[in-house]
Design goal:
Helices cover 3% and strands 48% of the residues. The chain has 322 residues and is mostly beta strands. The longest helix has 9 residues. 28% of the residues are buried.
Amino acid sequence: ARQIMAYLDELTPEKTIAINGTDYAYIYNLRDAPFADFVTDWGEVIRLISYTMPSGDINYGQQFDIVLQLINLGPIDKNLNLLLRVVNQEGYELERYEWRPAGIATVDWRKDELWHHRTAVTTTVAAPPGLYRVEVAFFDPETQVRLPAVQTRSGDPIGDTLVLDYLVVDHIPTAPALPLDPPAQLDNKVTLLGTSMTHDDGTALAEHPAHPGEAVHVQVFWQTNGLMAVDYTAFGHLVGPDGQLATQHDQQPLAGFVPTTLWYPGQIFVDEYTLTIPAEATPGEYPLHMGMYDLATVTRLPINRNGEFVGDSVVVAVINVQ
């Protein structure tokens, strides 16, 4: 599981086992370690402490398990249901489990008891390819009210649903129509590989110029370099021939569907933006600048290409407006 690997990457092993000079295994002291970021409490009665699931791409017809390790924190006076969804950004559910966790009535759980919940998932050919996330929540089936969730490590509320991890069904496109050469490295955390841009009718923007008032659709291809501790916001700023900002689109990548703190090294994400050319736009060339920033501080990530610093944004394409 990706978040397990990310958590262990934060820790220093107490012992390393090497064979023929190659590290073979690491031993960690988890008793004294801080909780992982994904460890979550619901209603002060149920805690998710660990989980397992595949971390690679899932093929059609493949069966796999999602296993949750849950601990009872205190008496539960009613039978609660677990809601586990594997869902894509358009709302298609690859899996939906909505019943008692581990199949056991929660009123019968004893304090500090460990429960293993297993959901079997089959990837059918009806499932659209692409990115899916795993969501976990608990609720009262009589009232349909979900229990509030807090991150155990910080005590911060996270709403009522934990976005636990993600998986890829079949594949994600990896080749932008307009690759950046060389690619742009954003603080060595993420690489901007390039873009694909289309008109409303799906034709490539390179084939026909854009027009005032038209919406331009931009796909941005990101590749993760390393684990990120911040949920970054991306920006696309279209600048007019006069050097002034013509239009912009700022958002968390994937509209926050899988925040950057869950991105795992090597994974490619295809992010979509829409930029509407102003109705009063004058003809000319409009460069599209892109980058990322920390919303809390509005600090942009520095960008380099081939090891050379180029600023805090990079021109990914130039749109011809006629």
